[in-house]
Amino acid sequence: MKTRIVFAVLAAVVLCAGQPALAHHPFAAEYDVNKPVTLTGTLDRMEWVNPHGWIYMDVEQPDGTVKRWTIEAAGPGQMNRRGLKRADTVDGMSLVIKGYQHRRDPAQANGRTLVLSDGRNFYIGAVGGPNDGADR
Amino acid sequence: MEAPYRPVASVREIMNSVIDPSIDIVWDSVKTVIDDGRMTDFAPTTDEDWTEVRRHALIVGEAANLLLMPSRLIAPPGAAARAPGVELEPDEVRALIDENRDGWTFFVQQLQDSVGLALAAIDARDPEALLVAGEQIDTACENCHQVFWFPNAFPSVP
Fold first, then answer.
1. Cα separation of B134 and B118, whole Å?
2. pLDDT tens sequence across A76-131
3. Cα distance between residue B60 and residue A105, in whole Å
4. Of B20, B33, B52, which is closest to A15 when you measure between CB atoms?
5. Of A69, A115, B48, B80, which has the highest C-beta tally within 10 A?
6. What is the DSSP letter of A87?
7. pTM across the whole model
8. A26 touches chain B (CB under 8 A)
9. DSSP reduced 3-state for A22
């Protein structure tokens, strides 16, 4: 069995303490639709959790340094219905994510599409994002 | 006749101080983390764990009733929207609620219904059902926010 059940609420709270945004916020208050980003890198960590999933990826910069981006995504139920399963995501895998940069945090974005290393493409936007056709 | 309630907090303060911290505990209690080369599912395991999550679900379900008290302020006196131009100002939220009291009540009760699903999942010790209920709670929150808090916050791509 590839998963193991571990508790607990306290541990989860500690893990989630570093989540970068309030659970509820209008897209436009947090993210800038005028700053689209395309991020190519490797998955470092992913949290399948309500109300939003969180993807942490390492992106190599032109100067050779690595920048760790935090990407807000849809919740687990929405991702599942769009065909992206938990087993599809393995840390260290290559990813391409398109989205919009955070207004204040230059290393955070709202994810819209995700392309896995096998070429499969998924809409990962949460409710309330811009009408940009990413969901088609 | 309305009971002699004496609201202490505004709607914003109830959201930030009561509902949001508690629903975060409910949401965070079931999740999967991909890290360090493995996939790990988190869920309550002991009776104490489940009781703690249940306590927070109850807080949200009952706090929803506080939102229905008509004399409650939307935000502390003098407070403005935290994201002007994206969120409505408190007096604009107040006007929308007063014009559409049935809609406000509907969304509050939708929140309570979804919390009811979470309570049932907790009582059944069913992490998957709690995850599903968690999404329904978020949907209830978003539905209400998009009508009463930030109805104009859907940006077009330039």
1. 7
2. 999 999 999 999 999 999 999 999 999 999 999 999 999 999 999 999 999 888 88
3. 30
4. B33
5. A69
6. G
7. 0.90
8. yes
9. coil
